[in-house]
Amino acid sequence: MSAYYSFIRREQHADGSSTAYYESNIHAQGAWNPHEQHMAPATGILCAELEQFQPRAEMRIGRVGLDIFGLIAFGEFSITTRMIRPGKTIELIEAEMCANGKTCIVARAWKMLTSDTRAIAGLEDLPVESPDYLPEWDGMRCWPGGYIQSIQTRAHLDHRPGKGIVWLSNQLEMIDGQPTSDFTRLMGMVDTANGVVPRQNPNAGWGFPNLDLQIHLHRLPQGQWLGLEVVQQYGEDGIGLTSGILHDVHGPFGRSEQILTLRKF
């Protein structure tokens, strides 16, 4: 297979919502459990549905917030996308992934009216070294699962447990037989941030799965490479946080946050 997912069919509903049916393959397999999907491509397929839902040329997605309800079951699943809050300048839309009769993930996206603000534009996040000048990195091989095997990785030399910069790319389409937008491709790798600078090796007796993924975008990403400038922190009462600055080859484009539940195996 040259894609993470196969499309089955789509249903349009009288209330304006739509339900798409998909099936995952080995490339979408998770790292914590061989019978689940990895949150990274699951985020990508949800973002593909959000991006395609009632598009308006003058608006774009500025934030995607995803909450993980439980195990993201491998195999067949559905995504129902609906309008939550329509508007002229802002809209809130929702995509719900379900499998085996249960909700797996709920993703909500704010779509925002765009305008020319070049006269006041300014960033504090700084660009990082291009992946073109970095060596290949095999540090992700401590993780199992088909998704991890599907990505290419390069890392800055100062990478260490808890902090570092890693670039990711992949050659797969998100949906078999359909072209993948840069937005969907890069959003489909953001969740990997939780595994690129782990404070604990995943085989060392501790788990640190995330319960959510929050992505804020001050511009839309471009290209094939996603840069993750990540800090991972563990608290003293079983809760941690993975925070990332998101880059493409043109510079920083947003930030991500993931809340973690720390569990001893």
Structure, described:
This is Thioesterase. Residues 136-260 form the Acyl-CoA thioesterase-like C-terminal domain. It comes from Acinetobacter indicus CIP 110367. Residues 30-111 form the Acyl-CoA thioesterase-like N-terminal HotDog domain. The chain is globular and about 50 Å long. With 265 residues, the protein is mostly beta strands. The protein has one domain: Beta Barrel (Porin), CATH 2.40.160. The longest helix has 14 residues, at 39-52. 11% of the residues lie in helices and 43% in strands.
Structure, briefly:
The chain is mainly beta and 265 residues long.
**What summary fits the major beta sheet?**
13 strands, mixed
Number of helices: 4
* Percent in strands: 35-45%
Question: CATH topology, anyone?
Answer: Porin
Give the CATH H-level superfamily: Acyl-CoA thioesterase, double hotdog domain
The string of secondary-structure elements, in order, is EEHEEEEHEEEHHEEEEEE
CATH architecture: Beta Barrel
Side-by-side strand order of the widest sheet: 7-8-12-13-14-11-3-6-5-4-2-1-9
Protein name: Thioesterase
Domain Acyl-CoA thioesterase-like N-terminal HotDog: 30-111
Domain Acyl-CoA thioesterase-like C-terminal: 136-260
